[in-house]
Amino acid sequence: MQSHPNVQAVQRALDDAGARDGSGAASQVRLLPEAVHTAAAAADALGVDVGAIANSLVFDADGTPLLVLTSGAHRVDAAGLAARLGVTHLRRATPDFVREHTGQVIGGVAPVGHPGPLRTLVDTALAGYAEVWAAGGVPQAVFPITYPELLRITGGTPAEVA
Question: Are strands 64-71 and 119-123 parallel, antiparallel or unpaired?
Fold first, then answer.
């Protein structure tokens, strides 16, 4: 699985950006024994608080992809977010829309490693953790990173999304 093209693309993006984890070491994609399709499952597998999981949620914002990296401890307030962004229709993207814009499948969407740049919002709740965990391109791949690094490597905008 380490040789999966999505995992390779994510690791390459991390390497190219010089991404660092909470200890200051280079962020490395890790493979878990089982796929983790939810923040709770990822937190259990990693032995961390569910809030330290950075869920990658793709939304269809008036036909344009929007990546929201949100803490696993809460849900995105789509209506409130749409109003703040001035978007008429903000809804969870279909699996085909997600794959088209990220090259990845729901449950494994990483913050990086996409075919092209995506507008990205990063939940400010993640700032409360010294290290957060994000998906690595497939449902059983994850990587550690800090909140400031996540903002930096994604070009994301800090936002209250819940």
Answer: parallel
